[in-house]
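Supplementary material to the annual report.
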Amino acid sequence: MNRQKCVALMAGVVFCGVLSVRAGAVEGAGMMLDEANQSIAAASVAVEDARAAIEKGKQLITQIPADSELLPEVKEILVAAAENWKLAVAALDGAKESAARITTASTQEIAGDYKLLATVNAGVAMSGAKVVQTGLLFVEAVAHDKTESLGIIRMAMQDALAATSQVEFNYERVKTLVAEKYSK
Amino acid sequence: MKKHLSIKVGLSTALIAMAGLVQAADMATASGVLANVATMSVQSKANLASAASSGDVAAIAEAAKRADAVDAAMADAQDAYAAMERAVAGGDTDAAASASDDLEAAQQRASDALNGAIPDAEPKSAQEAWKESQTNTGGGPNKAYDPPNIYNVPWQTQGLRSLYTSLFGSFWTASSQGGSLDDGGGDATPE
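Predicted assembly:
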C-alpha cells in the first residue's frame, strides 16, 4: 500500500513537472512570437515604403530625358532594385510563414529555430526594401537633376547592395545550419 | 555490469550529441546576428541616401557618421564570428563564448550607431595606454629606456640652425662677397 502511495505521489510530481514545463514552453514560444512579429512589422513597413517609392519612381522615369548620360546607370540600378524587390516580398512571406509555426512547434528548440528563421527572413525583406528605396532615390535625383547628391546616393547604393549580399549570405548559412541540425 | 556500462555509454553519446546540437544552434544564432548587423548597415546607407536627397548638409554629415560607425561595428562582428567559428572548430567552448559575447556587443554598437548613439572617442586599450606610457621616458624605475639615437646631432636643432643661418647671413651681408654692393661703396672684387 505504501509503495502504491509512493508511486502515485511520484506520478503526481512528474505530472505537475510536465505541466509546468509545458506552461513555460508555451510562455517562451509566446515571447519568441512577439519578437519575430516585431521584426516582421518593421520589415512590412519598409516593404510598404518601397512599394510607394516604386509607384513614385514610375512617374519619375518619364521625367528623365531620353538622351541623358545617366540613363544607362539608371537602368542598372532599376534592375538591381527589381531583383531586391522580388527578394524582399518573398522573404517577408517566408518570415510570416516561419513565425506562424513558432507556437505550433513541438519543442522549445524547434520554436527557437522558427523564430530565428522568421527574424532573419524579416532582415532579408528589410534590406531588400531599403535597397529599392535607395535605388529610387537615385532615380529621383537624376529626374530632378540633383547632381550634387548623386555621388553620395550612388555610393550608398553600392554599399547597400554589398551589405544586402551579406544579409542573404548569412540567411543561407542560417538555413543550412538549421537544416543540418535536424538531418542528423 | 554490462547493462550499467551501456547506459553510461548511451548517456555520454547523448551528451556529446547534445553538445553538437548546441554548437550548431549557436553558430546559426551567430549567423542570424551577423545578418542583423548587415541589415542595419543597409538601413544606415538608405538613411544616408535619404539625407543626400534632402540636400541638408548637417543631416548628410550625421548620416555619414552613423553609417561609418555601423560599418565599423559590422567589421567587428565579422571578426567575432570568424573567431567563434575557429573556437567551435577547435572545441574551445570558453573562446567560443567569448567570441559570442563580442558578436553581441558589436550588434549592440551597430544598433546604437544606427540610432545616433556614437561614442566620441574610442577608449584606449590597456595595451595601447601602456605602450604610450613607455615611450621616450629616458629610463627610470619601471620605465623603458630609449637608446640614444646616434644619428641625432644635438646641435642640429632648429633653433641652432636658425642662429647659424642668421649669423651666416649677417656675415655674408657684411663680407665683401655678399650683401649690397652699394653698402661698401665700391666693387666687390679688389681690382
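Chain A has a mean pLDDT of 87.
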